[in-house]
Write a structure and sequence with these properties.
Elements: H1 10-19, E1 25-33, E2 36-40, E3 45-50, H2 52-57, E4 70-74, E5 82-87, E6 93-97, E7 105-110, E8 114-120, H3 127-139, E9 143-149, H4 156-167, E10 175-177, H5 186-192, E11 198-202, H6 209-217, E12 240-244, E13 250-253, H7 266-272, H8 274-280, H9 297-303, H10 309-351
Parallel strand pairs: 3-5, 8-9, 8-11, 9-10, 11-13
Antiparallel strand pairs: 1-2, 1-4, 1-12, 2-3, 4-5, 6-7, 12-13
Helix pairs in contact: 3-7, 3-10, 7-8
The structure holds guanosine-5'-triphosphate, magnesium ion (MG) and zinc ion (ZN).
């Protein structure tokens, strides 16, 4: 198996040329479980650890490798764990705000071509959460597709209703429905998976992400758990893992995210809310907040029912969060820089 089959291309090759030191070679991170890594190259999959230098030089958690990353490694002749020395720049990424009040980001996965955003038809279907995931994928330059799982638990009419709800937002993301239990829709999904491309499953805990990967692999490779009737489950998957399917596609499983904090830029927001963005162009004022301005075409659309009140509220909420986060993130970065300069000048004074 060559690196191209794992997704390596000319762009990464260029990045690698600038990064690799003598004795190092390229590999892809296939699993991250707390501090432990698995990396894969043309020959084998091996355990790996971070070089001390890389860990100490990291300015932020996002500088450290995540699943899907291309890294420069040094292999151990005696068979010990390989050492990861550097991370290649990412083409695409999934990241989220760290849980809690901090403004730092956490990498979920990198270098993904398509993200399947999964919601279970029963108990889990939620347009607002879907919006969040769509913004997240768009922000990381990943093509989103929507998967409605567990169709065996609802009627065809209910399913059609959900699909219609998604379509009414005019989201360009394709919608696919499937059931791991009956096998409905699995062949359509298989038909979408291309060799050498990387896919990722995103969605709440218990929607059936790992079960789907096991079905596609054709064996019980990873643990899944029975969830309670309400769909509220405990997390079963704790590690981020990239699996190679027989068809040559790669699929990344992620643990269900409990808190889907935001996000970085407004670009992702505008893409996920293309319908609103389009309306916005007709507002009288360029900086219209769509809350009270005269001649606001967003408000008009809500009034005459072409835009649902729910979607409008979802947009306002995400917009507010994004704006707040952008602000605090920029401030924090400034402070970090100022602190860095302070440390440097203090060190200099000590040296002289
Ligand atoms: N009825 C029904 N149950 C399913 C289906 N797919 C998965 N399940 C069940 O849903 C439960 C959760 O499945 P998992 O695959 O572990 O869910 P997950 O998304 O990986 O959850 P986390 O790892 O916690 O994020 C298991 O009990 C599965 O058997 C389906 O299509 N229909
Ligand atoms: Mg799982
Ligand atoms: Zn407006």
């Amino acid at each position: 198996m060559d690196l191209t089959s794992l997704g390596f291309d000319a762009w990464f090759e260029e990045q690698a040329a600038a990064l690799l030191q003598p004795g190092q070679s390229i590999a892809r991170v296939t699993a991250v479980d707390r501090g432990a890594f698995l990396v894969r190259n043309q020959e084998a999959e091996t355990h790996a650890e971070l070089a001390g230098r890389l860990r100490f030089a990291a300015q932020a958690a996002t500088d450290l490798p995540c699943v899907g990353d291309w890294v420069g490694v040094q292999h151990h002749a005696s068979g010990g764990p390989a050492i990861i020395h550097g991370v290649l720049p990412r083409k695409t990424y999934l990241r989220r705000k760290c849980p809690g009040k901090t403004v730092d980001f956490q990498m979920i996965a990198a270098n993904i071509d398509v993200a399947f955003i999964m919601q279970a038809c029963a108990n889990d279907f939620n347009m607002r959460r879907l919006d969040r995931y769509l913004v997240m994928a768009n922000e990381g330059h990943i093509e989103p597709r929507i998967v409605l799982s567990k169709t065996d638990l609802i009627s065809p009419a209910e399913l059609a209703g959900m699909v219609a709800q998604i379509k009414s937002t005019r989201s360009p993301a394709a919608v696919l429905a499937l059931s791991n239990t009956t096998g409905f829709g699995l062949d359509s999904l298989r038909g979408l998976l291309l060799p050498g491309k990387t896919y990722c499953l995103l969605g709440s805990s218990g929607v059936g992400k790992t079960t789907l990967i096991n079905r596609l692999l054709g064996r019980e490779a990873f643990d899944t758990k029975v969830v309670s009737g309400t769909g509220e489950g405990v997390h079963t998957t704790s590690r981020r893992q990239l699996s190679l399917l027989a068809c040559g596609a790669m699929l990344i499983d992620t643990p269900g995210l409990r808190e889907l904090g935001l996000l970085g830029t407004t670009a992702g927001l505008n893409e996920a809310f293309a319908d609103l963005h389009e309306l916005e162009l007709n507002c009288r004022f360029a900086d219209c907040t769509h809350t009270q301005e005269p001649g606001c075409s967003v408000l008009t659309a809500v009034e005459n029912g072409t835009l649902s009140e729910e979607r409008y509220q979802s947009y306002l909420k995400l917009k507010k969060e994004t704006a707040f986060h952008n602000l605090t993130y920029v401030e924090k970065r400034k402070k970090d820089k100022a602190f860095g300069r302070f440390v440097k000048s203090a060190k200099k004074q000590l040296e002289t």
